[in-house]
Protein 1
Amino acid sequence: MSYLDALNYILPEVALTFGLCVVLIWDLVVRSGRRWWETGFLTLGFLAVTAVLLVQRFAYPPATVFGMVRIDLFATLFKLFLVVATGFVVAFQLADRNSGENGRSETHFLLLCAVLGGFFLVSADNFILMYLGLETLGLSSYALAGMAKRSVRGSEAALKYIVYGALASGVMLFGLSLFYGMSGSLSYGGTMVGVSQALANGQVAQVAIATLMVLVGFGFKLSLFPFQWWAPDVYQGVSTPVASFLAVGSKGIAVAAMLRVMATTFGIELHADAGSEFTSSLSALLALLAVVTMLFGNLAALRQTDLKRLLAYSSIAHAGYILAAMATLTPAGFHAAALYTLLYGLMTLGIFGAVLYFANIAGHERIDGLHGLGYRHPIAGAATVVFLASLTGLPPTAGFGGKYYLLTALWESGHGMLALVVALMSVVSLFYYFRIAKALYLKSATTEPKKMSMPVLAGILALLAIANVWFLQFGGLLTGVQQAWGQLEALIS
């Protein structure tokens, strides 16, 4: 492949890099009092250009660029997911009436940096590039969490995020070094061969230790138990748009990277005898982590009174659902995990947008601030109910479709008990999601809320709600996920 052909493949990354440079320079040069608005619209513009370039790449054949960057349908699909999610995050911020210090233009620069890191994370075919992408995403996220300098709660949350993140990153790096010692290669394919040879030679313990260390890094990003302690404090302490990015963009792209690493590093194991010692142990470990994560997230959410803290625990529970599908170590399970991640992003963006809307009205983010607001703001109220139904997994929403395919994959792979736990935890989640709907429609306001109209944000919520219902007809999305996975499987067959 010539240099120009390679450059053409990574044109979305080039456009994004150019965009973040422009946003940074604009913030330094322009002295307008509303320059964060200007950088916000610049950011949306560059994200739109990047999205167009990504859509064009769907027609490109898979290729490895510079020996380290894998451009295929799987990577492109999740890059587009990240770009769209970030676009909604910026739109939330621009629509926020109380953004204040959290609306500074540096936020837009950091968001673009995080997106660029996510691009290389999901496209990496080499552990060095994967780690650099993960750290770019992580460092940008730490900075975003610490933007509200005058908030003691926000500063405390950012510090916890950095400390936990640094620890998880160090453990993961040590695990990667063990993989390199086994295989003598940093590429995913070379590591796959090294892992296969190590298992054939009976070095199961060494492979298991390295795998556990790498899982620590991904577990932190996905807020899996017991690496989830940072999430509630961070979600509560940061601005709502930033929290939505951490819950959707950062987590979603980390899921995609974990799927790629598991498939291409343990690809031979995915096709091996299901009774092999390592495969059985890894599947059991992931299933155990999934169950504990689901239990912790759902049970902890039951007693929350702060909306963002409740959604943090909800996000932990959904990470457990995704991990349950991964625990099957089958292509069908990985299909379900990828599909559920995409649909989870759709419903979670919506519910965070609803929290932002009602927090502007009520002046705080507690559940009791929602009392009676469903009737006063019918569009936002109805959209919120749709998002809650989707998060629970009720028809006819996107969440129902995602849960259906997830449960089907679990059942058909012989993980019936795990499917039962997912179903029971979904029932438990109905109780704390219903508390929000109950506050909107069945409780009377004790204080007079602000008389405020936010038509732009209400329109965004309506759009997301319609998408949540329309995505019940997501056969095209499922087909796209299967085709993307087919390209990934071609590397390991």
Protein 2
Amino acid sequence: MDWLLIIVMLPLLAAVAVGFVPGRQRRVIRGITIGASGLSLLCALIAFLSFEIDGELKFETKVPWVESLGLYFHLAADGINIGIILMGAIVAFAAACCANDITHRVKEFHILLNVMIGGILGAFASMDLFFFYFFHELALVPTFIMIGVWGRGANRNYATYKITLYLSLGALLALIGLIGVYVQTGAESFSIPDLIDKVGKKPINEAAQQWIFPLLLFGFGILVSLWPFHTWAPLGYGAAPTATAMLHAGVLKKFGLYGLIRVAIPMAPVGAQSWLGVLAWLALGNLLYCGLVAVRQKDLNLLIGNSSVAHMGFIFLGIASLNVIGLTGAVLVMIAHGLLAALAFGLSGHLYRQTGSLDMSRMGGLLRQMPLAGSALLMALFAGCGLPGFANFAGEITIFFAAWAAGLKTITVIAAWSAFVIGGLYMMRAIRNILHGPRGDDWAKASDVNPLIATALGLLLAALLVFGFAPWLLTKGIEGEVTKIVRLAKPEAER
């Protein structure tokens, strides 16, 4: 069964279907989006549970597009992307359920939302370099429009311009790097597996790798909010509609990290070894600087946004370790953070709808006023602190071991201190200000999450706990694939 084709096409077909529905029929429009994302999630779950780990691509769809140029519409799953696709489908369904804060031009918003979901899932499922990039851009363009038209706050327009400028620059640098890979390999196909196989037999010239890898590193890095190119992220998420923030921070942002692991390191391994030390120190900028900025935030969305950027530092550190443990941990944290970011932004969106404010100094007593939302936020904050039992802990502790084993001992100590001290500080501050104490004035007429949103957010939380208590469900597939990447990048090393 071509599960990936179904998963990718369902939201794109939903976008077309919504286009034929009169704009006044809002419930029908929302129902189509939720139904399509729910079916995509069901297919993703079936694909994940039936995935066999044998080193071969699964659920493959390969259709010629421009055969003379070696372009194929090629979707496939392996141990790395199958878990990310499942995470993306979970977040997409949750975002669709939380999109009820849009009250004007609902039809247009849901068309863009479905296109964004289809683009996200397509980017991670693609095994062709052209469609890998194309689907990312297909998801990115609706992001700019949704923030500009349906965003909130006085800085909405500025946030739109800034996020458009930064992400367009990152996408351009990555595109130049990808073109460099294609040209330097002399390949006759855009197939990522074929390109990696060709590079394994005849590596790209080392001098070329020294300019290709930094282009990919900083291009993909900007898309992920690598310090110091991170300032677009908290501002953009603070202005974005709830569903947009959930999808971008949760899933689309991971495209750059996925690109580093899937494309940059295998294609330019010598360049990677030259530049990953720089990446390790920049990762500390994410962890330390953005963590300290998060401590000072009074707005819940800005706290979540800066915390999200800070947590990217763990993943960058895992990638910089360039060993099997580190890359496995990096993919695991990508999935865990995607679920957590979506949960946190979904909850903050509900609080904003109920109170019209996210000023934490005006909050208090949420657990008493909204037991469900308050309990979910408490669990999300615990997960953000790296509490054992959540998937974040499993990935982060793995990365610490990997970085130490890679000789990055000073960076590992600083990163651990940042995680447990700075991270704990801003999370505990949020718990004190929002969940406990006297009830804030804004809570007087606030109501708890409805059953639909509770189900969606509960699904995100359940996935965090399942993968926290049983990370092997993900790592058993990831490890085999990243082992191939490490052997290609460091032939002398097994791990």
Protein 3
Amino acid sequence: MKRKTYSCGLEAALDVVGGKWKVLILWALHDERRRFGDLRRTVSGISEKMLIQNLKEMEADGIVIRHDFREIPPRVEYALTSFGISLSAALSPLCEWGQLHMARIGAVKEEEEEARGRIEA
């Protein structure tokens, strides 16, 4: 299989964390390993199917490692690999920016929704 080539680093990074859920899963794992149910509760709004799919993709990309304890009842934990930890560190400034501007972003989004509602009415 031919290796994918990228034109810039951002393109490569987005290929790994693209989609709605991967960044949120990555961030949920940035400070501790978690069990599946804990991840599902932490990543608000994600379905079980989407969490499973995204975790498998992240595991295939070398971002997440799955540890199966082979116990009854089943116990599985997910954690970031060293590759995933380096990606999480890169996302930290983006998280800080979001925290700093959260109120402004929320207000802008609310205004957009109100404007759309007036146009549709």
Protein 4
Amino acid sequence: MPERTVRRPGRLFRLAALAAVVLAVSCAPRKRAPEAPPPEPPEARSLYEQAERRFQDGALAEAAVLFERYLERSPGGPSAPAALLRLGKIHGLRGEFSSARRTYERLIAEHPASPLRAEAFLERLALPLAEGRPAEVEGLFPEALAAAETPSQRVRAWTLRAEARSRLGERIAAVEFLLRALQEAPPAEREAAAARLRLAILRLTPQEARGLAARPEGELRMDYLLFQAGMVFAREGRAEEARALLEAFRARYPEHEERPRAERELAALESLRPAKPFRIGALLPLSGSHQALGQRALRGLELALHLHHAAGGGPPVELVVRDTASEPGRTAQALQELAGQEVSAVVGPLVHVEAAMPEAERRGIPLLVLTQKEGVTRAGGAVFRNFPTPGAQVEALVSLAFERLGVREAVALYPDEPYGRTFADLFRRAFEQHGGSLLAAVPYDPRATDFAGAIRKLLPYTEEVPKEGAEERREPARPAARRGRGEAPADSVRVCRFQAVFLPDEPRKVAMIAPQLAYHDIRDVFLLGTNLWNSEALLRLAGPYVQGAVFVDAFFAGSRDPAVRRFVEAYEAAYGEAPGLIEALAFDSAVILAELFGRGGARAPAEVASALRAAEGFSGVTGRTRFRETGEPEKTLRRIEIRGRRFVELE
């Protein structure tokens, strides 16, 4: 907009204007000063404080009820915007996305002057990503950015927009938006924003990097982006992309202050004899029904290679990614494409493994598959499983029950569907092989919400004894906490012959069953679970009833293991959230291959397969892994106990 020249009013004009204002004020009727809003009733304030405490403790269901009661009592109260923001967050955490969206929109509409309105716009912007509908982010972005009041809020808006574009496969746009986020970032957030930008740059294919180099100047200045992207690729050993970007930078900005650095880097690239990089292929479902799983695995792979190159000393490794589209036909075709790229090994598939197996066997390309699907490995075959199998989980769990908990007799309650039947059968065999006695294995309808019928079938393995004789009848090993409020008769107590209940089901069902066990006086026994229990949802939904419960898993983000802590910190810095099992297994798969390349230089697929079988083991964030001749893994699983409102790793 052209500047306008504004003349200063003369002194006489200013005096006349001042006199007019004084006269107008003196003649106008006096207005009463606005009254302060009435104080919030103590009972409403108490409700809000209770709700906030329950939220901080992780008791989301109780917190939601209290926040709703507060809003019914004080819809226009001073804490109403904060209550709505918390309530929307709770709905989102519980997967109630429509309710979350309505709650945020209520805050936006009813409290236009609240400073929390901007946060509501941002939380609404994040919902489509949680729902797996990234295309919807673009329509919500302008309002969220306009409402942002602080640099941190603008950073989050641009970052969410970038994540949506990345999930849609628009990686150049994602890079541009993350650069905008970096430019907005306050000093305390610049390092994390720069890390996200670096990882997004490394996601670019060679063709996309060349496209970025040719991109014209627009709303976003290209000098910084071309220079930084070129330097990132140079540090990662991707000389072709680095050269294209730095040459474009040098040609387009001959007077730029960073030109000398670009010249030095280009000279270094020319002087180095380019070592042929090792190539790892990735077969991932980046679109289709399993795209969320594929995106998580891709993050783990990219972070592993980023840290590998940042540490230095190892051979250059490239990642060549192909989207399987969550379809068997595309999976087979994608493996053929990777074979043409001279990959030494492939991480994946995650689903439809059987579609890739014939081509992998024919070409001898080792696949590190991230699945527990049975029947995919064989002696001397091309498939290596890097995933905790049901058998490995059960063996580790039974060992824990015998060695640490002193369990000798147990029962099993399991859903009558393939997952439950598989785990119940494995548990029976492992428990009896250890010398234990499985007194009962009771199935239940996986659609049920009332489990009284199944639980009553366990009662024959309990007995009621007079209170004075109860203590001497009990086994010595018991959890410290009782789990519920079911009352035994006043003059007797129910004693279980078994010391543990094996319950292979997901957290929502466990949260229904555990209180019903307590109601039927099945108490003071250990609950044993599978890695499905490694979820904050279990603590939120069933915390008081699962104290002392144990399970095993390959990955535990709260571990004190230094390698795990470094991985979690790096992942959170790059992606703003904690990693899960799939991210960790993908990370370890890339680390295993990079370590193998560095040990002996195995490059041909057949050499890599032989080296994987011959290696004594690899230490990673998912424990120590060794591959048998069959391609099945021997993994050291982590033992996890529930204490209070947190998971604790057992030594």
